[in-house]
Amino acid sequence: MEQAIKDFVQLKRFAVVGVSRSKNKFGNTIHRELKERGYKVYGVNPALSEIGGDKCYSGLSELMGKVDGAILCVAPNSVEQILREAASLGIRHVWLQQGAENPGVLEFARGLNLSLVTGKCILMYAEPVDSFHAVHRFFVRLLGKL
Prior knowledge:
Elements: H1 2-9, E1 13-17, H2 26-36, E2 40-44, E3 50-51, E4 54-57, E5 69-72, H3 79-88, E6 93-96, H4 105-111, E7 115-118, H5 131-143
Parallel strand pairs: 1-2, 1-5, 2-4, 5-6, 6-7
Antiparallel strand pairs: 3-4
């Protein structure tokens, strides 16, 4: 998985699937922080027209050719459908934020030929990493988990 993380954070254009009306949801935090770090970020939620002043997209298909990777902040029962859509659009790099995993997802993603990162927080790896997330990353490297 370390190579998948390195490959993912080299990308510069991301879809954040699962942004929300609630400013406190993690998808929104990821969208905002990656944007502040200089990445091109697109919010995806079929129920929203905008996120943080930016257009929000109803699905990955609207972003075909605009993104290199997708970050999923969704319920586990939605993941396989989104992975299928990503694979069909040629989006090969997918990051599942904690809480989006389900038991069969790794094998399912392998079957779609996707590079998948799970169990990690994108904000601990996408540069520049702030002090809060840098401390988390230090402990993960030291202890193997948070």
